[in-house]
Amino acid sequence: MLDLDAQTFSAYLDELTDWVQQHTSGAPRKVADLGAGTGGGSLALARRFTAAEIVAVDQSAVMLDRVRAAARAQGLDDRLRVVQADLDDAWPPIGSVDLVWAASSLHHVADPDRMLGDVHAALRPGGLLVVIEMDALPRFLPDDIGIGRPGLEERCHEAAARAGWNAHPDWRPHLERAGFEMAAQRTFVIEASPAPPSATRYGHALLSGFRSALDGHLAADDLDALDHLLAADRPDALLHRRDLTLRASRTAWAARRRP
Fold first, then answer.
1. Domains of the chain (ranges plus CATH)?
2. What region, left, alpha or beta, does residue 87 occupy, with left being phi > 0 and alpha being psi -120 to 50 degrees?
3. Which pLDDT does position 232 carry in this prediction?
4. Is pTM beyond 0.85 here?
5. Which of 3, 53, 161, 250 has a CA-to-CA distance to 134 between 20 and 30 Å?
6. Distance between CA 163 and CA 167 in Å, rounded?
């Protein structure tokens, strides 16, 4: 899912890192990606800040192996190192940094206010923290897919929201309490019609997650419609459709440690 997200939203990542660069003070020497996953953000940062050392931090050794492999494939492994650490335990031993990136990771931390204090202490004066969150999970389907009742995807998203998927606060008050000075906030709206090729597999993975996790939270006919969409042997199943579009939005908060 993380790799598919990076592929599907590659143009957005370029736009986002350009926006981040506009708010950095000079060229950062060291950049930390907190909760790096499979490295989509780390690699985008390495491409944007060509003189910086990138430190990818994640608690999963499997994820970090993926980051290393992706960095080698793109010829960026000489500037990227990985650190395995659980951010709920303590701040990782990475030293002072100029830029910290936390994409869809801060809301997973047990005590985000404590971690924001750690980030503030690790940033050099004038350094920047960027927090990114999905406003909602991405959408791919037309309202009427020709299977079951119209509005299937909307009902799936409503059920996922009731179950607490992707829940996160407005981070501005938390950042200000931690001593940061707000530099900027922006919502990035992403739309593509037709959707890029990777969106088909991304949508299939997301709907599969809905089907397994929301059983009992959706009506029986909606579950049947999901089964129909996810069946590879049906001509109107998701993997064979040509009417997919991409609709998503993400919000970024940029906050600076005062010089």
1. 1-134+168-191+247-259 (3.40.50.150), 138-166+196-243 (no CATH)
2. alpha
3. 87
4. yes
5. 53
6. 9
